[in-house]
Amino acid sequence: MGPLVRGLAVLRALAGHEAGARVRPADLARATGLARSVVDRVLTTLGHLGYVRADGREVVLAVGLMELGNAYLTASGVPAALGPHVARLAAALDASVSVAVPDADGVRIVTQAARPRAAAAGFRAGLRIGDLLPAGRCAPGALFAAAPPDWAVDDQLLEPGLVAVAVPVRDPAGRTACAVTVTSHTSRHSADGLRQETLTALRAAVPAMEAALADAGTGGAPGAEGGGAAPASYGMPYDGPATALSPAPDLPRTGPGTA
């Protein structure tokens, strides 16, 4: 394992901890399988680069790390091209709206607009920029299949209480460049209710989004190097019936609210 790989392994292990978690070098050694002395050297280098900092005996990510994440967001052109459209959709639908691109075996959120009004207490109303979602357990993941559907619904498969509807945004060659998703909670919508309330607006917004991507010169599917496609059976074309993503048996299901 080369120095770069070791450094990335330590950064990923550190980023994988919950916000506010107390992380010490020994924790990173256990998480990465690296020797403690190696972890110490890596942290020293990352500290000099401004990517981590010491907080007493603990280690935290430093603000300098933002330049790496922001570099992709800027280079891809997706947030700049689609951000205004996403914000308008969120305001019109009073819901959280996000855009995802494929990343390895999942999909990653690259732009997002939160629900304008306050969500129910304790509910994470939508997805965050940078979130990596398993392709087979979320609505946008289904849209990067080899034969993608025209839309997909997630009925609490990703997270109990969270429902979502996604549609593809295609490049000029007809490939799915990214997926736009509206997310809600069962206290406000059932999965089918969310589909009925938002799918028409989502589909109506797609042509302008596709034109914005073309004008920005993003070309092919950003992030498509991962190729993490979900099975095509997760959704069917709009003109026919759809098989929605459903909750896993071990996930508690909150009763659907009214649409």
From TrEMBL:
Keyword tags: DNA-binding, Transcription, Transcription regulation
IclR-ED domain location, by residue? 64-215
**PROSITE patterns recorded for this chain?**
HTH_ICLR, ICLR_ED
Q: Where is this region: Disordered?
A: 215-259
> GO MF terms on file?
DNA binding; DNA-binding transcription factor activity
Q: Which Pfam families match?
A: HTH_IclR, IclR_C
> Quick one: signal sequence residues?
none
List the Gene3D superfamilies.
3.30.450.40, Winged helix-like DNA-binding domain superfamily/Winged helix DNA-binding domain
SUPFAM superfamilies (alphabetical):
GAF domain-like, Winged helix' DNA-binding domain
- What PANTHER family does the database record attribute to this sequence? HELIX-TURN-HELIX TRANSCRIPTIONAL REGULATOR, ICLR FAMILY, TRANSCRIPTIONAL REGULATOR
Return the protein name. Answer: IclR family transcriptional regulator
